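Below is how a single chain appears once it has passed through the pipeline. First comes the sequence as given, then the structure the pipeline wrote out for it. We keep one example in the README because the format questions we get most often are answered faster by looking than by reading.
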Amino acid sequence: MNTYMIVAVVLIVAGILGLVYGQFSYTKDSETAKLGPIQLTVNEKETVNIPVWAGAGAIVAGVAMLVFALMKH
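Resulting structure:
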């Protein structure tokens, strides 16, 4: 399996996951304050929305790369 095929499969899978889930969340440490023995940390939950066009574009690009890789052989 060459590099084009691996990248193509990754793009297709990422595009499908983007269309199915539509968003993902992560937690970010934003501020830490230490006042003597007390330490305060603020965690912010960030959500990233994945546009439908990005998921569909990844699938189309992955399929195009896969077809190109198969025709090259």
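The beta strands are 23-35, 38-49.

See the next section for the split statistics.
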